[in-house]
Structure formats: C-alpha cells, structure tokens
Amino acid sequence: MSETAETQPSAGDSLRDVLERAYDAAEAAETDQAPDRDRDDRGRFAAKAEGDEAPAVETPEPPAEPEAPVIERPAAWAAERWDRLSPEDRAYVAQREQAIHSELESRATVAQEVERFKAVAAPHADRFRSMGLTEAQAFERLLAWEQALRTNPHVALPQIAQAFGLDLRNFVPDSNAPMPPTPQVLHDPRLDAMLAQQAAEKQRQEAQEAARVDAEIASFRAAPENKHFDRVRGKMASLMQFNPQLTLRDAYDAAVWADKELREERLQARLKAETEAQRKAEAARVQQARSRAVSVRDSHGTQPSMSDTTPKSLRAALEDAVNQVW
Asked: Which of 84, 195, 305, 310 maximizes the CB count within 10 A of its CB?
C-alpha cells in the first residue's frame, strides 16, 4: 500500500492517530536525506542531542599580502631624490634606467663593430673611390659575389671573370700539351752562402730600420709640444696606415684636431699666444714712438726742462712727437 493510502484516515481513527501517521510518512520521505539519524521505538526520528550540533565551518584567513620587493637605487639618482619617490615611481624609474643602460651597451657594441669595419676598409679606401664605391657598397658587392658563387657558380664565375676582363679558357690546362719537365735544382755552395749573406743583411737592415723608427717615435713622444701623444696614438696609427706618406707631425696634428676636447684646448692656446704677440707688438710700437719723439727734440737743439722729465701718458707722448715733426 502506498504512503498516501496509509495516511488516509479510517472510520475509527482519532485525530491524533491521523496526525501521527502523517508525521511518520513525512519523516520516512526524509530518510534518504538523513539515513544515519537515530529513530525511537515507533520508527520516528529521535530528537537531536544537545551536543549533536553541526560542526562550525571555519572561515579561512585571507592570505597575507606579499612584501613589496626592494628596488635598488640607480647610480645616477641622488639618495634624497630617490627616497621621495613612491614605490610605483621607483619601479618605473628603475625599469627606465635599465632600458637606457641596455640601449647604451648595445650602441657601444655597434660602435666597436663600426670602428673595426673602418679599420679593415681604410687601406682600400682609395681603390674603392676610384671604382666609384663607398666602403659599404664595396662590402655589399663582395657579399653578393660570394653568395652568387655559392648558389650558382657556373653562372656567377663567368660573370665575375668578365667584370675583371679575364678569359677563363686561359686557366684551363690543355690535356694534349706535354707536361713541362721537372726542373732540376742545382745547389752551389757559393750561391747558397751568398743568398744566406743577403738574407742576413736584409734582416739586419730591417732591424736597424725598426730601431730607427722606434727611436724617432720615442723622441717625438718626449717632446713637450707632443704631450698628448699617448692619447691620440691609436688615431695616429690609423691615419698613417691609411696614408703611409704622413709624417709623425702631420699624423699627430690631424689626430689632435680630430679630438674635440684637444681641438678646443689648442684653439684657446693659439688665441692666447696671438693676444700676447699683439700686446708685445703694441708695446714695441709705443716704445719706438717715444724714442722717435726724443730724437726729434734733440735734433732741434731743445733742452728738456724739468717739466719734460715728468712721465707723460702715451697719448701725450704721441702728440708731442707729431708736433715736433710738423
């Protein structure tokens, strides 16, 4: 019989019996939701004991916020200015300083590579210019030839030979031509001794020339007017390698002039020397004018009075000289 039929009241049931059956049916429907709950002797769920309350759910504590990382002060920033920045501004400034530092290092590397390329190309600059090419254009042409020879040598090699005016057939040996006889090397002790003597003499001359050049460089370096020799030595070597006809003096002057700081120093020294020379020339001219004025007075037989011995200004001396002449 279904639960609905069991809960229907019969003719002899009291109101209490009907309510108890309805209550039991409701508790039976909840059995699946609470299968482990105790029941009394009539099959009903027993009341919960005081200590059977549901365990309290512990609320997890929020995780602690991580400490902000310590940002090192960049070397270019003063401590008092750095301390006034907020953590966000410090992070931004540190990031920008790192980016600038990386960019400067990258540019320094590129500058070194450029200088190395210039040093390699400098001895050939005249030949490049005679061909109407810059160093970069000549380098690009060489790379293009190398790539063409690697990818398609049968086409590239004849084109390169034609560009240089060469006939490749002259480089192909004739299979029908007789092999040239192997020359016999004859050793003459007198010839060997003479060649050895010439080689020794050549080596001695090269050593003397190297010693002479070293002495000349040392003497040039010790001269007071060449006090910046060590600073511009590398630039001088590059200039003399590019133009072997340059003297040490010419290479030194060109290297010093190429250095902005040394150029300004030399210009200031030249200006000071010219100013001093003008001052001395003006003093000599004044002295000459005074001497001429005295000689003119003496030629007219005038005797200097007591007032004439009084020192006069330059203007007064000149006016006296003009009056005596006219």
From this structure: 195
